[in-house]
Amino acid sequence: MDDTGGDMHFTEGSSSAVTPVLRISQLDAFELDTALEQLVWSQFTQCFQHFKPGQLTHFEPEIKAFLQLLLWRFTIYSQSATVGQSLLSIRYKNDLSQAQKYQPMSRQQKLWYALCTIGEKWLQERSRDLFTNRPTESVFHKAKYSIGIICGLTKAASLLNFLIFLQKGRFPTLAERFLGIRAVFSRPQGIRQVGFEYMNRELLWHGFAEFLIFLFPLINTRKLKSRLCSWFSPLDGFKISDATLARQCRECALCGEWPTLPHTIGCDHVFCYYCIKSYSISDMYFACPKCALEVQKVEPVKLQLEMTDFNKS
Asked: Which end of the chain lies in a sparser environment, N or C, as judged by fewer CB atoms within 10 Å?
């Protein structure tokens, strides 16, 4: 058997047949087309923003249909692809043709496509005005009821077709399945060589960084610092005396300045009243940064010393 027959010759038609269009690419093309239609309509309405309000309201469905026909004329009719499909290198293929090479949409398919898409939108918008304020027993009311049933069945069929599209990846809309047109790539798609080592390293690093950002606010750094200081300079069994407090009264254990309104928390260190009060309010588990003793009770320092004690210190 000749192996050359199995090679993929990426011609204009074979590449589209070999490489399937991803579901997300087809849905992205629809989103781009919808965004383009909204942009064209907004630009068109801005041309009449200085006119009397409400002049375009009565003819709005017809104007929208006309603008959509212009887009259809220069996209589907001439290129067999919408604007969104052209941006993603996608176009429609006549799936009813038995030829292996690429076959564009036929003229009948293009006309029926315009009728199924543009005509359906126009009918839905115009029917709201045609059947309002009509007698209940009139022909218009019966036509409205019939159109409502047809629209409901069409939406149910569209939902079923979309579920089939999610499973098989072909014909995302009911019009495409009915007309036999399928989205294919307009040019060969090269095989991408992706190295995942760098990507995995970046994902791990970003995940670790986010974990640290989440963890750091939960860590009481002041208490951790005081614990470390207590381990390296233990003061167990050290009794408080007036002479010790006199020596410590020269410096606040928090701000390092001369203590203002000196207070103590039960250890032999002295704090400014405002320092210890603010720290104890912000942190209910506040401990002395010098000896790691937790706040028991904030009390003012009471000393009965002679001036000779200060001179000795």
From this structure: N
